[in-house]
């Protein structure tokens, strides 16, 4: 049974719903309703409030939009960087190709989370929430390209040996023209790499945030909301604390289902 | 002749590993030194410790003026066997790391063994069946969609399972996906079909015909499992309060103890390169 279409539509519906919730008049992810902290579901707060009285539904919606937008932007940067490095490494001098792959190996030898932690902890103490969000996704993009670049390098090398490229070279096409004609042929390789990066970056941001090293408060993030689960007082007060993690799992499942065919 | 070739390949592999480690050390040092917050300390915000912190930071600024000097001092620290001095505790970094190595090593070993047993059993059963059943695919997909930190927190709240189980489930789900695909392909290889048609018993078929054919992919997957396990270490150790390297790294990150973080990152890079992640891997594993 093919699930990719319904999953994609459901994902789009959720994104639209999140957009509507955050755009509603009076909806603010940072507004604190001190009269109703840790509240359950009500007409005013359909998914309750957190320990500071902030509306959970608005925060979850904003986190969804922020994490998806950030992950998409980071995936675009990663895929473009990987396409550039992989193609140049394959078509450049062999010493450049060797060095580029050695750098890729050096990146691949480092588990992501450690590098992310190192970079995040080396930021100034006064980093603003918006900057922390931008830096988190920028760092994810900067660390995500090597695996993709290796795949592009391999793909380009195999294309380099293909008959049509040999013919193009024999016809006297310059290197720049050849590279330009190769790039469209790499799209079937780049699209899956791009689609793999999106959920990977969403998960990485959530894990980093859950360790207190992700997007700074008051900006909402999946990781920040996972931290609520550490608060036993909240868990006793309301079951809505589990709502963000449940929605995050649903989003990741939908992303997986929507992209599986690619 | 064959021995000579093997020795040359070994030397080449070791040289590449050393080059990667030096590159990692150089890259990490540059990254840390030029990070905008390198010469800042959380203690500066507390009036009781601000004076001492500022004095330490100005000494650090003097020490780290030249990048070459800083890089040489890093290598010197590793050569002396102390990996520098912790900013937070003021003791040699290796004194902090040494007692935690066994804890993390034990956790990694238990998780990897459990994960591989689970993944191999599940993929053998699922790949040998007629249809790739949702019965096996669904839990694997679901497990992959739960961030490690969330899974660990939920296990802790439910008072069920421990750090090894959380890591094993995460690794098993990931390994199962690749193993299932690889085995499914292997079962349909012409020589395997021929062997099945001749009535060769399944255990013999697996040991003699299928496993040798996919051995290189299994080795690549094993090294990839190591990277995944190392990445999962931090949230799992922090949430379950396991006194291992992951928890030390998190503590160092929260307190901006960059020498400790740098040393742990180097150990992780060493573990990954030793596990053989740096050499060529099958293309289908690159995206993992």
Topology:
The complex is a heterodimer of chains A (262) and B (288).
Chain A: H1 4-23, H2 56-91, H3 94-108, H4 112-121, H5 129-160, H6 163-170, H7 175-210, H8 222-226, H9 232-237, H10 243-259
Helix pairs in contact in A: 1-2, 1-10, 2-3, 2-5, 2-7, 3-5, 4-5, 5-7, 7-10
Chain B: H1 2-33, H2 47-63, H3 67-80, H4 93-128, H5 134-144, H6 148-158, H7 163-187, H8 190-197, H9 202-239, H10 245-254, H11 258-274, H12 283-286
Helix pairs in contact in B: 1-3, 1-11, 4-7, 4-9, 4-11, 5-7, 6-7, 6-9, 7-9, 8-9, 9-10, 10-11
Structure description:
The complex is a heterodimer of chains A (262) and B (288). With 262 residues, chain A is mainly α. Chain A is built from ten helices and no strands. With 288 residues, chain B is mostly helical. The longest helix of chain B is centred in the C-terminal third of the chain and has 38 residues, at 202-239. Chain B is flat, with a radius of gyration of 23 Å. The two termini of chain B are 37 Å apart. Classes of the chains: A mainly alpha (262), B mainly alpha (288). At the A-B interface, helix 3, helix 4, helix 5, helix 7 and helix 8 of A face helix 1, helix 5, helix 6, helix 9 and helix 10 of B.
How far apart, in Å, are the first and last alpha carbons of chain A? 15 Å
Q: Order of helices and strands of chain A, N to C?
A: HHHHHHHHHH
Strand content of chain A: under 5%
Structural category of chain A is: mainly alpha
Outline of chain B, from the CA principal axes? flat
- Count, helices of chain A: 10
**Radius of gyration of chain B over alpha carbons?**
23 Å
Count of runs of 4 or more consecutive helical residues of chain B: 12
Helix content of chain A: over 70%
> What percentage of amino acids of chain B are in beta strands?
under 5%
Low-pLDDT runs of 5+ residues of chain A are none
The biggest sheet of chain A amounts to: none
| Spans where pLDDT lies below 50 across 5 or more residues of chain B | 278-288
Straight-line distance between termini of chain B: 37 Å
Largest interface: A-B, 51 and 57 residues
Give the overall form of chain A: elongated
Q: Tell me about the biggest sheet of chain B?
A: none
Could you tell me the mean pLDDT of chain B? Answer: 80
Number of strands of chain B: 0
């Amino acid at each position: 049974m093919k699930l990719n279409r319904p999953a994609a539509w459901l994902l789009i519906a959720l994104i639209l719903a999140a957009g509507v919730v955050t755009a509603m008049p009076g909806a603010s992810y940072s507004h604190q309703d001190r009269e109703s902290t840790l509240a359950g579901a009500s007409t005013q707060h359909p998914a309750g409030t957190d320990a500071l009285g902030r509306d959970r539904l608005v925060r979850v919606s904003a986190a969804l939009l922020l994490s998806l937008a950030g992950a998409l932007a980071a995936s675009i940067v990663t895929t473009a960087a990987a396409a550039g490095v992989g193609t140049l490494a394959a078509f450049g001098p062999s010493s450049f190709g060797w060095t580029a792959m050695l750098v890729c190996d050096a990146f691949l030898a480092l588990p992501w989370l450690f590098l992310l932690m190192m970079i995040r902890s080396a930021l100034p103490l006064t980093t603003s929430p918006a900057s922390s969000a931008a830096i988190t996704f920028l760092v994810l993009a900067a660390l995500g390209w090597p695996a993709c670049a290796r795949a592009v390098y391999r793909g380009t090398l195999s294309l380099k040996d293909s008959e049509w490229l040999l013919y193009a070279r024999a016809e006297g096409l310059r290197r720049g023209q050849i590279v330009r004609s190769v790039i469209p042929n790499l799209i079937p390789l780049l699209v899956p790499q791009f689609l793999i990066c999106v959920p990977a970056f969403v998960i990485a941001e959530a894990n980093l945030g859950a360790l207190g090293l992700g997007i700074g408060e008051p900006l909402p993030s999946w990781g920040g909301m996972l931290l609520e689960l550490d608060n036993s007082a909240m868990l006793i007060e309301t079951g809505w604390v589990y709502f963000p993690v449940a929605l995050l799992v649903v989003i990741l499942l939908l992303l997986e289902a929507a992209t599986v065919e690619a | 002749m064959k021995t000579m070739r093997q020795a040359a390949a070994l030397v080449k592999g070791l040289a590449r590993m050393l080059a990667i480690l030096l590159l990692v050390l150089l890259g990490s040092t540059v990254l840390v030194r030029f990070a905008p917050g390198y010469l800042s300390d959380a203690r500066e915000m507390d009036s009781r410790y601000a004076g001492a912190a500022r004095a330490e930071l100005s000494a650090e600024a003097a020490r780290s003026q030249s990048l070459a000097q800083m890089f040489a001092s890093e290598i010197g620290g590793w050569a002396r066997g102390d990996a520098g001095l912790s900013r937070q505790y003021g003791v040699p970094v290796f004194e902090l790391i040494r007692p935690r190595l066994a804890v993390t090593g034990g956790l990694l070993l238990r998780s990897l063994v459990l994960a591989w047993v689970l993944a191999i059993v599940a993929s053998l059963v699922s790949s040998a069946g007629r249809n790739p059943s949702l019965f096996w695919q669904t839990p694997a997909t679901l497990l992959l969609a739960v961030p490690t930190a969330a899974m660990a927190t939920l296990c802790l709240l439910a008072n069920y399972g421990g750090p090894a189980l959380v890591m094993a489930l995460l690794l098993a789900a990931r390994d199962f996906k690749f193993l299932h695909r690889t085995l499914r392909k292997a079962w349909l290889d012409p020589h395997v079909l021929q062997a099945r048609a001749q009535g060769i018993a399944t255990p013999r078929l697996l040991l003699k015909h299928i496993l040798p054919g996919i051995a290189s992919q299994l080795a690549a997957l094993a090294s990839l499992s190591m990277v995944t396990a190392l990445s999962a270490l931090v949230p799992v150790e922090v949430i379950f309060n396991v006194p291992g390297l992951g928890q030390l790294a998190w503590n160092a990150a929260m307190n901006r103890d960059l020498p400790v973080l740098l040393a742990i990152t180097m150990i992780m890079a060493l573990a990954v390169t030793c596990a053989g992640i740096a050499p060529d891997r099958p293309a289908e594993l690159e995206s993992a």
